[in-house]
């Protein structure tokens, strides 16, 4: 009988890391909050050069492979835009689904039903999916998405797994903070947003952590 080796198996499979050019990523939303993008750019600039590789490894961009072998981003649009604006050419991706076998119409129906696309413009209005930007660099600014991100960081609500939860908050704030304040007076806008977030009026939103009435 052959003796079993006690040597470590150096041929064991290792997880595959997929890299892709940021310019080849396709967004599944129309806007980002540029103030949040700027914050992520600042965080990137603080990293020592030796740590940028591990950062990218810990922040892989989740994607869906679609028709024509295109990669569609379904989360971390803000990070992708920040890295793009910082001149990063390649990112690591985490494939979530392979839908290359679907035709275009079936692909977008599936994406919509899974909550993997958000074709709403900077005014919160739904647009045809053909209006989605073709590249990360074409994402438009929505000041209310910035405000929603700042509100979460300020403790206004908790991070939630609901798809595009920050956009749900952004749309609620769109009705309660005037556009000039949201764009030009971040401090006042955040104060008003916090007042709303802590009220029962916001209890329907994902991650709400306001006071609960005792029964």
Describe, in plain words, how this protein is organized in 3D.
The protein has 215 residues and is α/β, with parallel strands linked by helices. It folds into two domains: 18-141, Conserved hypothetical protein from pyrococcus furiosus pfu- 392566-001, ParB domain (Alpha-Beta Complex); 143-200, Ubiquitin-associated (UBA) domain (Helicase, Ruva Protein, domain 3), CATH 1.10.8. 36% of the residues lie in helices and 13% in strands. It contains eight helices and seven strands. It has helices at residues 34-46, 52-58, 77-85, 104-113, 143-153, 165-174, 179-184, 186-197; strands at residues 18-21, 25-26, 31-32, 61-65, 71-73, 90-98, 140-141. The strands form two sheets. The chain has a five-stranded mixed β-sheet with strand order 1-6-4-5-2. It is globular, with a radius of gyration of 21 Å. It starts with 17 loop residues before the first strand and ends in an 18-residue tail after the last helix. Residues 1-15 have low confidence and may be disordered.
């Amino acid at each position: 009988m052959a003796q079993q080796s006690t040597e470590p198996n150096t041929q064991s499979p290792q997880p595959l890391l997929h890299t892709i050019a940021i310019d080849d990523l396709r967004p599944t939303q129309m806007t980002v909050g540029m103030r949040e993008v700027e914050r992520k750019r600042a965080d990137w600039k603080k990293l020592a050069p030796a740590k940028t590789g591990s950062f990218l490894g810990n922040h892989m961009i989740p994607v869906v492979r679609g028709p024509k072998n295109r990669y569609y981003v379904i989360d971390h649009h803000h990070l992708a835009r920040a890295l793009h604006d910082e001149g990063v050419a390649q990112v690591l991706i985490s494939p979530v689904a392979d839908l290359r076998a679907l035709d275009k119409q079936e692909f977008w129906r599936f994406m919509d039903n899974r909550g993997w696309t958000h074709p709403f413009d900077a005014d919160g209005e739904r647009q045809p999916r053909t209006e989605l930007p073709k590249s990360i660099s074409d994402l438009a600014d929505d000041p209310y998405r910035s405000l929603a991100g700042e509100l979460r960081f300020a403790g206004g609500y908790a991070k939630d797994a609901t798809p595009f939860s920050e956009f749900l908050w952004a749309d609620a704030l769109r009705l309660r903070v005037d556009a000039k304040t949201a764009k030009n007076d971040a401090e006042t806008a955040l104060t008003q947003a916090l007042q709303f977030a802590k009220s029962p009026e916001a209890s329907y939103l994902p991650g709400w952590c306001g006071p609960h009435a005792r029964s």
